[in-house]
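tokens incoming
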């Protein structure tokens, strides 16, 4: 669980560092964007996952950005949620084992079309639809005594060690195709903009899995 939290923080730092890049000229067909925000789960999985976090990086391509309102858009996103252990225990899923911790994460690669309004002024809006591949992973773990070989980094000695650790009791990873839609508001700057965006993602595993991230971002 700590590993996934560390991964999320690392990705956030990397994408924040990427925003230092020089803004693209207004006539450049390529634009890039970075966003992060709040990611609740809706649908059948909602009782079992607490609201989590979302981070993403992507871009748009439009050969005539000044006149053409439609662009091709791509995104790579990562979502992370804590498991609601109380709801999982109450569900009494057959074959389930008591758990002390659990989480789920979702890697998404998606592509679609985006419409951008060309109204005058600094505030504009955009919306889009598309499809993507959704890789969902979840696991449950229990605190237990674990034995392993510990090697002292200073002296270089290795010896058996027994301590408290997390043992994964259930784990599953599934990849499915799905679709998305988004609607956002842009605040225009010189050759870039800040935006707030509502996203909807749907993929059908054994049951429907839906997320509804609300994100803040920067496009350059």
């Amino acid at each position: 669980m700590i590993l996934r939290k560390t991964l999320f923080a690392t990705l956030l730092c990397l994408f924040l560092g990427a925003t230092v890049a020089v803004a693209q000229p207004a006539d450049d067909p390529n634009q890039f964007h970075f966003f992060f925000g709040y990611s609740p789960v809706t649908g059948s999985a909602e009782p079992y996952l607490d609201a989590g976090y979302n981070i993403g990086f992507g871009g748009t391509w439009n050969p005539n950005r000044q006149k053409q309102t439609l662009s091709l858009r791509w995104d790579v996103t990562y979502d992370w949620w804590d498991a609601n252990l109380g709801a999982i225990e109450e569900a009494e899923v057959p074959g389930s084992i008591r758990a002390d911790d659990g989480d789920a994460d979702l890697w998404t690669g998606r592509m679609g079309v985006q419409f951008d309004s060309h109204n005058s002024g600094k505030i504009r809006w955009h919306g889009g639809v598309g499809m993507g591949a959704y890789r969902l992973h979840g696991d449950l773990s229990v605190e237990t005594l674990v034995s392993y070989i510990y090697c002292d980094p200073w002296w270089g000695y290795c010896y058996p060690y027994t301590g408290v650790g997390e043992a994964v009791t259930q784990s599953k990873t599934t990849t499915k195709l799905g679709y998305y839609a988004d609607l956002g508001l842009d605040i225009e700057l010189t050759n870039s903009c800040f935006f707030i965006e509502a996203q909807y993602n749907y993929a059908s595993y054994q049951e429907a899995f839906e997320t509804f991230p609300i994100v803040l971002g920067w496009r350059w």
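note: The helical segments are 2-18, 85-91.
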